[in-house]
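From the shared-data thread, chain only:
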Amino acid sequence: MNVAVIGTGYVGLVTGACFAEFGVRVTCVDKIAEKIEGLERGEMPIYEPGLDALVERNVRAERLSFTTDAAEAIRNALVVFIAVGTPAREDGGTDLTYVEAVAREIGQAINGYKVIVTKSTVPVGTSYRVRDLLKEEISKRGEEIDFSVASNPEFLREGAAIGDFMRPDRVVIGADEEAAMAILKDLYRPLYLNETPFVLTNIATAELTKYAANAFLATKISFINEVANFCERIGGDVQAIARGIGLDGRIGKKFLHAGPGFGGSCFPKDTRSAAHFAKDLGETFQIVEAVIQVNDAQRQRMVEKVQAAMGGDVDGKTIAILGLSFKPETDDMRDAPAVDIVKGLQARGANVRAFDPVAMTEAAKQLPDITYCKDAYECCENADAVVLMTEWNQFRMLDLARIHKLLRRPVAVDLRNVYAPEAMRAAGFEYTSVGR
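Structure, as tokens:
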């Protein structure tokens, strides 16, 4: 089976490389020639552990290729995945400009039966919009060509995407035609044989499933952050509470980690898109709207937490920030809490130094006026406080004695609750964490 994946961003590139690993012949398409040329040289446009080796292995085996020629890739494929960006609009809705442009391009190039699959996260009804655009373009050519549309949402976690694709919790396929469902089930057959749960449903349900999943996970994060705020008032321990409720099988322990709130390319955009979509239907997604408000407020609360730890005033003080990406194992700075928190500290007069293992190049695009350091220890040198922003593994066993000596004042603010309060205080730090 030949597959075309249009879009070589995070979702498209991982999807294409993983299908190639199954033995499928995959062509990944992008309009940006420099990006395609870089991929052909083995240069990854994103940081994702193991992706470079996976791509190199499948290119060498001639199962994976890259091109800017979308028309040829479409003509040669049975299944065409649309995996282009769906950025947020100012009003919180989803910008479908790229999806619609690709749909038209497919309609202009299609030469026989194909299954057109929306892989990008899109509002309910988008696949039908893709279908209508395809029909329109085919009609302009004066032809009649049969095709199917389907929805196959992705559930890839940045930093663990390859494992998530190869060993998924589930595969959701939405199709209204038996032929399309059969082809996609065959494409995913390696996972089906491994007894991966499959959810086979209609298109609208599949599209909404992705939003429901992300909205629910974001809700867990905002919920535990509100509990953490209560803990700070009463002297409670949010980690103990998270364990106490997480051991309940109906709740589960994942996404119950207090901190500066969620970020990245999915949760912020998808929660706002879900709320916007609900309004378009004449409904109010009240829980999701509250989740968004709590998350926005949590970032401001972290700014105030750092200021309070420094005696109520950060003006003229130097603050060392460890970690900038929204989560470990990625260089993604999209909607990262660090951006708002750093800017909030700067607005109050602080000077900021920072170190992140992989995200500093991306961070500099949004935070150009901070000092970037070569490692955690250079970052802490002569700083008035250190803030642990992202829980990279290399920050979990820092040389605390060395950090203590490098700081002007041993103030440590742990926004990820990586360290034990008793151990930090025993090491001589004025230590602050979240909800403990």
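The CA atoms of residues 424 and 431 lie 6 Å apart.
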